[in-house]
Design goal:
Pfam families: ABC_tran (PF00005). With about 325 residues, this protein is of the alpha/beta class. The strands form three sheets. The protein has a six-stranded mixed sheet with strand order 6-7-8-3-9-10, sandwiched between helices. A four-stranded antiparallel sheet has the order 2-1-4-5. The chain has a four-stranded antiparallel sheet with strand order 12-13-11-14. The structure holds adenosine-5'-triphosphate and magnesium ion (MG).
C-alpha cells in the first residue's frame, strides 16, 4: 500500500475575481520509505496539495489517502500518520519551546515524551532554547520548532513545505542529516523546496507541478539524464548573439547554454566566435536539476513523464 496516494485531485478556489483552479487532476503515489520531492514555481499548487493532504483544505474532486486512510472520511487516522511542517510560521506566543512540544504531543495522545523531545531539540540545535518563550526566537529558530512539532509523535510520513526557507546554512545541513536519518530508518518524506540542489541531493523521485498540473514525474537520476544533459557555462561582458540569447540562462556575467551533444557544443562555440563574444572560464558540465527544472517549466509541451514502477531501485547513497 502506498504511503501517500493522490488520485485525480482538483481544487478550485472561489475568489472575488472568480474561480481559480489551483490543482488539475493531480495523481501520483509515494511509496513507503521514499524521499519524494514536489517542485514547482510560486503559485504552482504545492501548498494547496499539502493542505489537502493535511486535511486543512478540501479537494474539489479526487481522493487522497495516507497508508490507506482517506484524509476526509478517516481524517484522524490519516492525520496521525503525518508530521507536517507548514510553510507559514504559525505558533502560540505564550509557551516556551518545551511546553509547545509537550502540548503538541498531547494532541496526538503521546505521554512521557520528554526523551524524544530532548532528542529533537538536540538534533535541531534548539537544546539551549528549550525554556525560551516562542516570542523570543528568531525566524529561523521558530522554523526549527515547527520541524520539532511536526515530529513529536514520530509520524511515519513527514511532510516538509519549504522547511529551509530563511534557515542558515549550518542548520540546513543539520536538518537534512536528521531528516535523512529518519528516512533511512523507514520514514517516508515529502519535501517541497525552491533549493533545487537540496532536492537533487535528497530526493529519490521528483514530481514537478506547473499551474496545478503534474508536468514531470520520475526518478531524480532519470530526470537528470533524460533531457539536455550537457551545459556550457562561461563568463562574458559582451551581449550574446540573438540565437543564443533566447536560450541562455544568464545570471550576472555568467551564461549557461544547454547542448545535447558534441555537435551542438561546437555550434554554440562557433556562434560565439562569429559574433566576437569574449568568453572567460569556459566549462562544459552536466546539467543539474535547476537546468532540468527551467527547461521543463519553459516547455509549453512538457510531457508527463511516466512513473517508474520501482522507485526504490536506484536510491542515491
Ligand atoms: N486560500 C486561498 N484562496 C484563494 N486562492 C488561493 C488560496 N490559497 C492559494 N491560492 C492560490 O492557489 C494557487 C496555488 O497556490 P499555492 O500556495 O498552492 O502555491 P505554491 O506552489 O505553494 O507556491 P509557493 O512556492 O509560492 O509556496 C495560487 O494561484 C494562489 O494564489
Ligand atoms: Mg507554497
Amino acid at each position: 500500500m502506498s504511503a501517500v496516494s493522490f488520485q485525480q485531485v482538483s481544487k478550485t478556489y472561489h475568489t472575488s475575481r472568480g474561480p481559480l483552479q489551483a490543482l488539475r487532476e493531480v495523481s501520483f503515489n509515494i511509496e513507503p520509505g521514499e524521499f519524494f520531492g514536489l517542485l514547482g514555481p510560486n503559485g504552482a499548487g504545492k501548498t494547496t496539495l499539502i493542505s489537502i493532504l493535511a486535511g486543512l483544505s478540501r479537494a474539489t474532486s479526487g481522493r487522497v489517502a495516507v497508508h490507506g486512510h482517506d484524509v476526509v472520511a478517516d481524517y484522524a487516522a490519516a492525520r496521525r500518520q503525518l508530521g507536517i511542517v507548514p510553510q507559514e510560521l504559525v505558533f502560540d506566543p505564550f509557551f516556551s519551546v518545551r511546553e509547545a512540544l509537550r502540548i503538541q504531543s498531547g494532541y496526538f495522545g503521546v505521554r512521557h515524551n520528554d526523551d524524544w523531545i530532548d532528542e529533537l531539540l538536540a538534533n535541531l540545535g534548539l537544546a539551549d532554547k528549550a525554556n525560551a518563550n516562542m516570542r523570543q526566537l528568531s525566524g529561523g529558530m521558530k522554523r526549527r520548532v515547527l520541524v520539532a512539532q511536526a515530529l513529536v509523535h514520530r509520524p511515519p510520513v513527514i511532510v516538509l513545505d519549504e522547511p529551509t526557507a530563511g534557515v542558515d546554512v549550518e542548520l540546513r545541513q543539520t536538518l537534512w542529516q536528521f531528516i535523512a536519518r529518519l528516512n533511512r530508518e523507514g520514514h517516508t518524506v515529502l519535501l517541497t523546496t525552491h533549493y533545487l540542489e537540496e532536492a537533487e541531493a535528497l530526493c529519490h523521485r521528483i514530481a514537478m507541478l506547473k499551474a496545478g498540473q503534474v508536468v514531470a514525474l520520475d526518478r531524480t537520476s532519470a530526470l537528470l539524464s533524460g533531457r539536455a544533459s550537457t551545459m556550457l557555462r562561461f563568463k562574458t561582458d559582451d551581449p550574446l548573439p540573438p540565437s543564443l540569447a533566447d536560450v541562455a540562462r544568464v545570471t550576472g556575467r555568467i551564461a549557461q547554454i544547454k547542448a545535447h551533444d558534441a555537435q551542438e557544443v561546437e555550434e554554440v562555440l562557433s556562434a560565439l566566435r562569429l559574433h566576437g563574444v569574449a568568453v572567460e572560464d569556459l566549462e562544459i558540465g552536466r546539467a543539474d536539476l535547476e537546468d532540468v527544472f527551467l527547461e521543463i517549466m519553459q516547455d509549453d509541451t512538457a510531457p508527463v513523464f511516466l512513473d517508474h514502477p520501482s522507485p526504490l531501485e536506484e536510491v542515491p547513497s
